[in-house]
Amino acid sequence: STPPARLRRAAAGHFFSEPQPTMKSIRALLIASLLPLTLAPAGLNAAEPMQGHGEHRAVAAALTAAQKKFLSGYENVRVALAADDLAAAKSAAAAIANSQPAGQLAKASSLKAARAAFKKLSEQAVPLVQGQDGYYIANCPMAGRDWVQTTKNIGNPYYGKEMLTCGTIKN
């Protein structure tokens, strides 16, 4: 039986030390080199992954005016609790419409009661901001609770001045 053609060519010294480029590999190289030029006018950067690709993130729906107002009032409550200011927290909570936890917080007689109501208020706020720009979900490991804030600088509403910077940004 005769050896396969590949072995016959090798024996005759017809193999090159490096593989020769194929039309397919040349085409792929050409496309890869032109990709940054075609994406640049669209404002995309080929070096950066496209948002959502590979992460399977759901696109968040735009917030309604009522949700934005709720989150604005919520942020005012959070800032007041982080400063241990019960009066300001109650006032800010009173401005939040249609929220039972906000109503409870507005009637709180102590920071402890206000923070307990804030936990429930946070359970309403956190799902609203999932995937929204300008909002950060933070976590206090000591309280075992999340909250929403509009800056990356931690301002812990669960412990206030006692542990103001305790916590981490989750998103």
3D architecture notes:
- The protein is built from six helices and three strands; from the N terminus they run H-H-H-H-H-H-E-E-E.
- The protein is mainly alpha-helical.
- The protein has a three-stranded antiparallel beta sheet.
- Helix 5 packs antiparallel against helix 6.
- The longest helix is centred in the last third of the chain and has 19 residues.
- The radius of gyration is 29 Å and the shape is globular.
- It starts with a helix and ends with a strand.
Give short descriptive properties of this protein.
171 residues, mainly alpha, 45% helix
Describe the main β-sheet briefly.
3 strands, antiparallel
End-to-end C-alpha gap: 67 Å
Count of DSSP E strands? 3
Strand order of the largest sheet: 2-1-3
Shape: globular
Give the % helix. Answer: 40-55%
The computed structural class is mainly alpha
Which strand-content bin applies to the residues? 5-15%
Order of SSEs: HHHHHHEEE
Could you report the average pLDDT, rounded to the nearest whole number? 79
Poorly predicted parts:
14-18, 32-57
Specify the number of helices.
Answer: 6
Q: What integer value in Å does the Rg equal? A: 29 Å
